[in-house]
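Entry for the shared binder. Reason: the reviewer on the internal report wants the predicted structure included alongside the sequence.
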Amino acid sequence: MLLDNAKKLGVEVREGTRATALQVVPDVGTRDLVGERCR
């Protein structure tokens, strides 16, 4: 799940979103994080 969403982010993931996502996913969820990040 995280990898699929991470690919959509692309550059942001490389910048460090991956680390942030791993901490937020358990609480918020990858979809919410990715949705707000993309927008």
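Summary line for the report: The two ends are 19 Å apart (CA to CA).
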